[in-house]
Amino acid sequence: MRRLLEAYQYVMPAVLTPLGAWLWLRHYDGHVALAALALLVPIAHAYIVPGIGTNVLRAWEFDTRLKLGRFRPHHGFVFGSATAVLMLPALGTPSAHPTFADVATSALASAAILGVVNWLYDVAAIRAGILKVYNQPWADGRGAAATVTDYAPWFFGGFGLVQGAGLKLAEGVLLPTDDRLDALAVGAALLAATVTLPTLGYVLQSYLRHGHHGCRPVAPQAKAFSGEVDFRLAAENASPQKAEE
Asked: Averaged over 214-226, what is the pLDDT?
């Protein structure tokens, strides 16, 4: 499995990035701004959130040959290219006047697709040793599935929810116009929403479930100390994910 995932992280982005660009340009009948939002927002998001989570907060870590600190420098394209292609069926027919039903359908379909696919990917990546996540379920000695379930609905499903709704709303703003300033404003707002809203949801549920914000590494047996532990302590106690109980 590790060899397959190692190959995937280089081969598939090289294929899916241009394929995603072509598919979205085709979907939007050559409307460059909307196609760019569909492709570039996921790529940028996957540099910002995991980049902070690995090299700043140190709650995650990639174990690959090519790394910048604890982050793989091509990760934005690994996540973003696949996301762009996966979301295409969820958006439906473009509309300059999207209804509430259009927005809700796109949001929920995108959340379901990205939540399930990325949950499966991260479980496989943890079991293969490519990804390490030092969250509360990991500290409690639980398996890869429990570790991923703690964050995947928020960071993957939540991203899909916001991106799906945002793209559909963006159609109503950008299809009638080619104004570049409008496109930049919509893109910045959408990227900010995909970064902040899922993160806030994750933090809230982490406080409710674990008593801490979940944005720092949690050392094994350290739950009573609210999860605010030094990463070195978590790293020293780190061991491969235990098999599912």
From this structure: 70
Residue 240: its pLDDT value, please? 42
* Nearest alpha-carbon partner for 23 in 99, 63, 64, 81: 81
Amino acid letter, residue 85: V
Domain, as residue range, for 23:
2-236
Is 179 within a domain? yes
- Domain total for the chain? 1
Q: 193 vs 13, 141, 155, 157, 189, CA distance in Å? A: 24, 33, 12, 14, 6
CB 36 within 8 A of CB 18: no
Helix (H/G/I), strand (E/B), else coil: 71: strand
Reported confidence tier of residue 221, pLDDT bands at 50, 70, 90: low
For the record, the structure tokens of 152 come out as 């995947």
Structure token pair of residue 134: 């030092």
Please give the single-letter amino acid code of residue 149.
Answer: T
Q: At what angle do helices 32-51 and 158-174 cross, to 10 degrees?
A: 150
Rounded to two decimals, what is the model's pTM?
0.86
Give a yes or no: residue 241 inside a domain: no
Instruction: Specify which residues 132 forms β-bridges with.
Output: 61
Return the structure tokens found at 193: 């929403």
